[in-house]
Structures are given as C-alpha cells and as structure tokens.
Amino acid sequence: MDIEFLNENMMGPNAWLIAEELTANLHLKRGMRVLDLGCGRGLTSVFLAEKFGVQVFAVDLWTTATENYNRFKEAGVSNLIVPLQLDALQLPFAEGFFDVVVSVDSYHYFGNNDFYFEKTLKPILKEDAIVAIAFPGMKYEVHDNIPEEMKPLWDEEALKMWHSIDWWKRKFEPYLTEFQIAEMDCFDRAWNDWLSCDNPYAVEDRLMIQTDNGRFMNLIKLTGKIR
Length: 227
Fold this sequence. Notes:
227 residues; Rossmann fold
C-alpha cells in the first residue's frame, strides 16, 4: 500500500491494518461477492480486492461513488470494485446476494441496536456467509461512571456508540456459528498511524488517546458465519 495514498484516505484508525487483522483467518476466495459496508474512502475495499481478488461492493453514505471510483482507478483495482453511495439502513440488494460482509470502523453508527443485523443485514447474506466486523469500543461499560478526565474529550454522540465486548456479543451470537469476538491487537499501531496524519480530526484525537492511555478504549473484532 502506497503510504501517501493511505494517509490521504484515512478517516480514523488505520482501516488497512484493521482489515488485515480482521480477515487474517478468513477463507475469502476469488469470485466471492463482498459487501464492504461503510467503506469511507475505500481503503478497505482496495485491501479486499488486492489481497483476495474478490468482487467488492463498496457502500458508503457520505463518500460519493465517483470519488471512490477515482480512488479505485488510482489503486488499479476498479475492475473488482463497484462503488455505491447508499444508506446502510436501506440496502437495495437481493436476499441472499452476498457471500461476505466486511465492515471496518462504521458498523457502530447504524448497527448499535437490537434489530439492524437481523432485519436489514442478515437477509441480504447467503446461508453460511462470512461476517467480519470491527469497530471502536470500550474495555467495559463506562456510561454510568464516565471518568472525569475523559468527559471533555469524548464526544457525547460517539460515546453512545462505544460499547464493551459483552454488550456487542449479545447482538450477534444468536445469528452466527463459529462466532468469535475479541479485542484487536492492532489498536496502538492503527491509532498511531491516524494520529501521525495532519488531518485536523487526527490532530483533535491526539489528546484523547494520550489521556486514555490504554485504560478504557479498545478496538473490537468479531467474525462468524450466518446460521
């Protein structure tokens, strides 16, 4: 991965690194249809196309299809990726269409409830489809006892979406076989790559990560197959 391309297109902790760890033990094969849900500027889509040769449907609400298509052409993988600007709450795909869903650093925005996976996402996945999702979280639920030093640094809206492994486990376990959920090993590297960028949002995040100092925040990964 070209470092300049990576730095220009990061929107948070290094999604390329997160995708590498998330998919390390998955059996993705050329020809599979993969939904990259909430792909942002398409780093994860490029990763999936380059590494596995899969057909990626790169879906994001805020990034236009044309912007991502131009990025995919620059990366040399536009023949493997279909860029789409869509709302994750309204996915216009056929039932049982996808072999795989991958979502990095976005699922918590729309899926942090009791109905999204069952009602919206699961129907468009094949039986035995692979599910691989990673998002920011917490080592434990802090919402009823927020540390004083973190209150000015945690955005209230974001904090509502950050939860513990135990909280998330209940949202997925009933629907997946071979289910695994754990803290990610790449937390420090992924965040450091982001914080070293000159993106103004990255600059704002530096104090938050420094103050947290590994005490509360984490990255969570989960994988499994549709029952």
